[in-house]
Specification:
With 95 residues, the protein is an all-alpha fold. Helix content is 78%, strand content 0%. α3 runs antiparallel to α4.
């Protein structure tokens, strides 16, 4: 149960970071100026919010390590990396 909660917290944090990434949003605006794609209404998150989301993304792994749940830590790490990779592929394909 703790593993699933850890994966969910990390996935939500990664999603929020990816959708409001300043570099990705600048690229979308550049494409919109050339008529390639419509611009989205998102604005980049302030750096303070990005740091909080990064912390929220990493805390579940630290807690799993401190609890000595090594198998859960490895599963969390693999699931988080896989989710982040898939999310970047999905967002890149939406261009």
């Amino acid at each position: 149960m703790m593993l699933l909660l850890s994966i969910a917290v990390s996935a939500l944090s990664v999603t929020a970071l990816a959708l409001r990434d300043p570099k990705r949003l600048r690229w979308r605006q550049k494409l919109a100026r050339h008529g390639a794609t419509p611009a989205k209404g998102f604005s980049p998150l302030p750096q303070r919010h990005r740091r909080w989301l990064l912390t929220a993304m990493l805390v579940p792994g630290v807690l799993l390590a401190l609890a000595g749940m090594w198998a859960s830590l490895m599963l969390w790490l693999g699931a988080s990396l896989t989710y982040g990779w898939l999310l970047s592929e999905v967002l890149a394909a939406r261009r």
